[in-house]
Design goal:
heterodimer, A: mainly alpha, 69% helix, B: 274 residues, alpha+beta, extended
Chain lengths: 183, 274
């Protein structure tokens, strides 16, 4: 799965990447760019140009930071996914993105004004967001805010006026359901 | 510890998706070294996630790969030697039959000019090499300068130059009179930046933690932890919309949910009122 035929194991691929083997890097791009781009587009919605800028930045960062990847802490894809998510959330908070969203309401206001009913989110029915659709709404909104908008649990508790403990429990329960769907 | 319960608690998913707090991550990583079944469960979730993401891949625009490879190619092959085309010194065959008498002198001139030509070629080759070397390092320095410059401007724009930014000078308490730090706080977008000026080094199991003290709230808001070694850099801390004062305490590594107030190291008041 995902591993090119020229590299028999993920370990071989990682070793080649750490040697700064450009061929290995090109293979890595071919195998994972689509999966990472899908996640980026789910966070940086409505702006394909900025999403592809993020993808470019993510791969350059992967190349530069490959030495910090530690296989004992998780799979290569998990590491790259987190780089992609963090870069996307940084983009979300950057001036450039916010200017491009000027005419839309700030997410803050959207969540506050609509309360728990019929929350309007930019759910493009792709990837993980599609899985989210299957969760209960009160669970879905929390995962959306934490994973796709990058808010901390504390910020979410404040924003939604729910106790911090409840936020943590609901997010964990939601993620457990996510695991069921991914199996 | 009941590891099965821990596995079922949702911590694996929280950790893998990057939503765990630093202390939760540290605990998870520590337990992974002890319990192979925890690692196996983590792996299973990671593989499911990867498979799901691969099946829902979205083809990125074609230009991106080219740009990425160009960007990394510059760093990887920046020192490819350039082909130096040197005109080989021309050998002039002397016409021996012309004047026998002066052939010794002519031979000398010929030999001298060949040596001169070789010498000139060697010098120009050296200069050429030196010049391209200087050009390369010049370009590299210029790139580095412009990237540092833009990072600096970005930081300045977000903090110092931003009219919404309040600078809060935090001074040491009686316990730590020499401690000092500055907070750059943007009340419009709630961003909080911390610049450590002087904070004593702590034992390995301790960290500094920043708090926002908010009127009408019983406990201060956690703005994140940092180390004394983060000296001379600008740290982005957690956001806060409100703060009447900022305070720094010493807490266990990873931070505490509420501050240990008798370890308060520095404090600074903002001008914000309720």
């Amino acid at each position: 799965m995902g591993i090119p035929t020229t590299y028999n194991t993920e370990q071989e691929l990682v070793l080649a990447l750490k040697r700064r083997d450009n061929q290995a890097f090109s293979t890595l791009y071919d195998n994972y760019a689509g999966a990472l781009y899908s996640i980026i587009k789910q966070i940086v919605t409505d702006n394909a140009e900025l999403a592809s800028d993020v993808l470019q930045e993510v791969f350059i960062n992967i190349y530069r930071k490959i030495d910090t990847y530690d296989q004992t802490k998780g799979r290569l894809f998990t590491w790259m996914l987190n780089i992609a998510r963090n870069a996307s959330i940084d983009m979300l908070r950057s001036k450039g993105y916010q200017n491009s969203q000027k005419n839309q309401e700030l997410p803050d206001n959207v969540y506050k004004s609509t309360g728990n009913q019929s929350i309007q989110l930019n759910v493009d029915n792709i990837g993980l967001k599609k899985v989210l659709e299957k969760l209960k709404p009160e669970h879905r909104i929390l995962v959306e805010l934490a994973y796709f908008k990058g808010f901390t649990h504390e910020e979410i508790a404040e924003m939604m006026s729910i106790p911090l403990g409840t936020v943590k429990t609901r997010i964990r329960n939601a993620l457990l359901q996510l695991r069921e769907y991914l199996q | 510890m009941n590891i099965q319960e821990y596995i079922e608690s949702g911590i694996i998913e929280t950790y893998v998706l990057g939503l765990a707090s630093p202390s939760e991550s540290a605990e998870f990583e520590r337990l992974c070294t002890q319990y192979p079944e925890l690692v196996a469960a983590r792996r299973k979730f990671e593989e499911g996630l990867e498979k799901h993401a691969s099946t829902h891949a979205v083809q990125p625009p074609v230009g991106v790969k080219v740009k990425v490879l160009e960007a990394i190619g510059d760093t990887a092959t920046g020192d490819t030697p350039q082909n130096v085309s040197l005109n080989p010194p021309k050998i002039v065959t002397m016409q021996n039959e012309s004047k026998k008498g002066s052939s010794g002198w002519l031979r000398f001139v010929a030999a001298a000019s060949v040596i001169l030509l070789i010498g000139l070629a060697w010098f120009s080759y050296q200069f050429y090499n030196e010049n391209s070397e200087l050009q390369r390092s010049n370009t590299a320095l210029r790139d580095k300068l412009s990237s540092s410059d833009s990072t600096l401007h970005k930081i300045l724009d977000e903090t110092v130059k931003n009219p919404n930014t309040t600078v809060v000078n935090m001074v040491g308490t009686k316990v730590a009179p020499k401690s000092s730090a500055n907070i750059y706080w943007d009340s419009a977008n709630s961003n909080v930046y911390l610049v450590v000026k002087n904070m004593p080094k702590l034992p390995n199991d301790k960290q500094y933690q920043l708090w926002a003290i908010i009127d009408g709230k019983s406990s201060p808001k956690d703005l994140g932890v940092f180390d004394a070694t983060d000296d001379k850099v600008i740290l982005k801390m957690n956001n806060t919309q409100k703060a009447q004062a900022f305070a720094i305490t010493i807490e266990k590594k990873g931070g505490n949910p509420t501050p240990t107030l008798d370890s308060m190291q520095a404090m600074g008041k903002t001008l914000q009122t309720q």
